[in-house]
Specification:
heterodimer, A: 336 residues, mainly alpha, two-stranded antiparallel sheet, 55% helix, 1% strand, B: 453 residues, alpha/beta, Rossmann fold, 6-stranded mixed sheet, 5-stranded parallel sheet, 14 helices
């Protein structure tokens, strides 16, 4: 019998190789296509924005936890995900200090104040964006056309497809604005991703590649994205907007796969997830149609985040569920 | 053959290949056994022998009145050396009878078995009395008295032989099905006779599919099936906890055992493979449950083995006699049972009991232990829970001390299979919390009931 290093612990004695940090890294990998395309469209300034946002998120988490004398958690890579997500939902021309400020706010107020990873009720990246949108409404709604890697920092400002729609333009005119001959051609252009908008939300194709990769390897469940997209389609159509245009423009696909699926802030139960996604689609369509902003995904998700604890009560029926009314006499569990 | 299964579960690394092709070997030269007095789920027993007594192999050495009691027998012939508390395989101390073998006596007078009994000719009461007298308990882990299980108050439609062996590492049931398929079939037939069930199913996980033709051949040539008894083999998906009683019933019959109920509520009786063989021997030879099959394996086991050992054999003796060889340098953890539900013990000086299906000697890599991180609410436990108990939410309720909510979510329905803790990327001690929580909740309910009176 060896004297040293014998482990005594309660079963199970076998553990999955999956870990929190591996999951977070997978999400980062899934975001690479969309982020890379953003850099390709908007140049090195977009890359700088991403790096500043990620860097300040990591630094904010590290320093805050050090300040409050809590265990360091930067090793779980969740701050990288938050910083990256925030950068990808900012306009390419956002000043770097704003991105840094948004990241710090997202991490400290949006996450750490509630106890850190897994305890935050609101999606931190969206909290960061909402904070910036309120603090710097002009800067966060100033858009530029994609100009390639050599883009100048002072590119002429333009409008987003949804912005033009809000101004009352017809779909044909919006298509023409982005150089497409017909709405059909424009939809293809939106799907592939040549249009003005946030850094990461442009190419639906690349977002789908990343998002479906996460679904395929089981990091993300299909229920939330499917329900968000279906409900956006449905309610846009019901409110008299072109449903396909509504899904392809703005940040709804990005939000459906990368924001609404945030572990801490989406419900855990399948029914809860479906209702959660349904609500996001409904609110997005309502905000786009009646709200003051052309885009509503940020607030739709944040509002539905509030419902998460309630939606968690909609559990699956447990194995062998019997109605409490006809209670069975409690009997001892038999051998296995 | 359609492969059946249940929803949820996980796939822990199996590592059965180390011992799955090693033939079962019988321990012959055991010189000392330490037999725990209480090895069943139920009321405690009284010791019937005293220090200095000569006992025969098969002689009853502890028993008690009462339905939930099962006697214990001497597993070797010899002298009662001591009766004292020793560490048992559940890591607690309990009264044990230490017997030292007397080598000179000849095996004829040193054995005391019951007279053989034909289960198909005797009455149900006689058969149940024999099952109890032979000291038979569920050998899959819980140690539930078999004579109680075989006297259900509801009609039984199917007897299921649990050949899933879903615990990783363990291969003793697999070896038994390969080496003694006739006994497995006979055991199912006896059980069917006692509970008057029209149908018998031997359920085998896919990773043991090679045992299926052997079992089918045994079924075809069995006098019981020729006499009209219906027994068949079903394949199950290899998935943990496929061999959990509830999961097995759901996979085979599609029914769910009602919350707080027993398998008989859905017309099922589930029997472990080892229990079936012990029953066959109890009737055919009158032999009580004095030995059992177990697997000794693991990354720190240089020579793994499938063994039949007398109850009470110390694992230290198995190793020193060379039936299995340990790599003491690499050893980090010793487990009685499987890696998912077994008990980690501090030494080799612990006896093989009626419910010890294996002894695992784990190396550094297998025994890796992780620090608990915070729950990221990924929901993996929610999807893996075979009882659909929402472990993430249940753990939150238990941690908050909200036992009312925990009970509503289903704390008392937890089968403690450990799948939630296995799949957790943050290595949360979920099932560990539920085990403690269940005890607290049961105590609370008991107190409530007392106050109500």
């Amino acid at each position: 019998m060896p004297a040293k290093g014998m482990l005594l612990s309660s079963s199970p004695h076998s553990f999955t190789p999956v870990s929190t940090s591996k999951i977070m890294l997978t999400v980062v990998i899934a975001l690479v296509p969309a982020a890379g395309y953003g850099v390709y469209l908007y140049g090195l300034s977009a890359l700088a924005l991403i790096l500043v946002s990620v860097g300040s998120a990591v630094a904010a988490e590290f320093l805050f936890r050090k300040a409050i004398n809590a265990t360091a958690t930067v090793g779980d890579f969740s701050a990288i995900v938050t910083g990256l997500l925030l950068a990808l939902i900012l306009p390419p021309g956002t000043p770097l200090y704003m991105a840094a400020l948004g990241s710090v706010f997202a991490i400290i107020v949006g996450k750490e104040f509630f106890g850190g990873l897994g305890a935050n009720p609101f999606n931190p990246a969206l909290i960061g964006r909402a904070f910036l949108l309120m603090s710097f409404p002009a800067a966060i709604t100033t858009w530029t056309m994609p100009q390639g890697l050599a883009a100048a920092a002072d590119a002429a400002s333009t409008a987003t497809p949804l912005g033009l729609l809000k101004q009352g333009q017809a779909l044909g005119d919006i298509a023409a604005y982005f150089g497409s001959g017909s709405p059909g051609e424009f939809f293809r252009q939106l799907f592939l991703g040549y249009r003005s908008g946030c850094i990461g939300e442009s190419s639906i194709l690349l977002i789908l590649i990343g998002g479906l990769f996460l679904v395929a390897i089981g990091v993300v469940q299909w229920i939330v994205p499917a329900s968000v997209l279906a409900s956006t389609f449905l309610f846009s159509w019901a409110l008299g907007m072109d449903p396909l245009f509504s899904v392809l423009s703005g940040g709804i696909v990005f939000g459906a796969f990368f924001m609404a699926t945030d572990y801490s802030t989406r419900p855990l139960t399948p029914t809860g997830m479906a209702i959660f996604g349904f609500g996001i689609g409904l609110l997005t369509a309502v905000i786009r149609k009646f709200g003051g902003f052309p885009e509503g995904v940020t607030y739709a998700i944040l509002i539905m985040n509030i419902a998460t604890p309630f939606l968690n009560k909609m559990r699956v029926k447990k194995y062998g569920f019997v109605l409490p009314a006809k209670q069975v006499k409690p009997s001892k569990e038999a051998g296995k | 053959m359609a492969v059946k299964t249940f929803k949820g579960g996980a796939h822990p690394p199996e590592r059965k290949e180390r011992s799955s092709s090693i033939a079962t070997e019988r321990l012959l030269d055991v010189t000392q056994v330490v037999i725990p007095v209480n090895q069943h789920f139920g009321a405690p027993l009284q010791v019937l022998v005293k220090v200095g007594d000569q006992v025969k192999r098969g002689q009853k050495i502890a028993d008690a009145e009462g339905r939930m009691t099962v006697p214990v027998h001497a597993s070797i012939a010899g002298l009662v050396k001591k009766i004292e508390p020793r560490t048992q395989s559940n890591n607690t101390d309990g009264p044990c009878i230490v017997i030292e073998a007397s080598l000179e006596s000849n095996p004829e007078d040193s054995t005391e078995f019951l007279p053989p009994l034909d289960p198909f000719a005797c009455s149900k009461e006689e058969a149940l009395a024999r099952v109890r007298a032979a000291g038979i308990v569920g050998m899959g882990g819980a140690g539930f008295p078999t004579h109680v299980k075989l006297a259900p108050s509801k009609p039984i439609s199917v007897v299921i032989a649990n050949g899933a062996e879903c615990e990783p590492f363990l291969t003793i049931d697999e070896r038994t099905m390969v080496e003694r398929p006739e006994d497995v079939v006979e055991g199912v037939a006896i059980t069917m006779k006692i509970v008057n069930a029209p149908e018998g199913v031997i359920a085998v996980e896919e990773n043991k599919a090679h045992a299926v033709p052997l079992l089918e051949k045994a079924i075809a040539s069995s006098p019981r099936t020729r006499a009209g008894m219906k027994i068949r083999v079903e394949l199950l998906k290899t998935k943990y906890p496929q061999g959990g009683e509830k999961m097995l019933i759901t996979a085979i019959t599609g029914k769910e055992v009602p919350s707080g109920g027993l398998p008989m509520d859905v017309g099922c009786v589930v029997q472990n493979i080892g229990t079936l063989c012990a029953m066959v021997e109890a009737f055919r030879e009158g032999k009580p449950l004095i030995e059992r099959g177990l697997t000794v394996t693991g990354g720190a086991c240089k020579k793994p083995a499938n063994l039949i050992a007398p109850i009470g054999t110390l694992v230290a003796d198995i190793l020193t006699k060379g039936y299995a060889v340990a790599d003491d340098e690499a050893l980090r953890r010793v487990i009685y049972g499987g890696p998912m539900m077994g008990v980690a013990v501090p030494s080799y000086q612990i006896p093989v009991q009626k419910n010890t299906s294996g002894v695992l000697l784990m190396n550094e890599e297998e025994a890796k232990y992780y620090d608990e991180e915070t729950c990221i609410r990924c929901g993996r436990c929610m999807r893996a829970c075979s009882c659909r108990l929402s472990p993430a939410l249940l753990a939150a309720a238990v941690e908050a001390g909200d036992y009312k909510d925990a009970e509503k979510i289903g704390l008392l329905d937890c089968i403690e299979c450990g799948t939630c803790s296995f799949v957790c990327p943050a290595h949360r001690q979920l099932v560990q919390r539920f085990r403690v929580g269940k005890q607290i909740l049961r105590a609370m309910k008991q107190k409530e009931a007392q106050n109500a009176r």
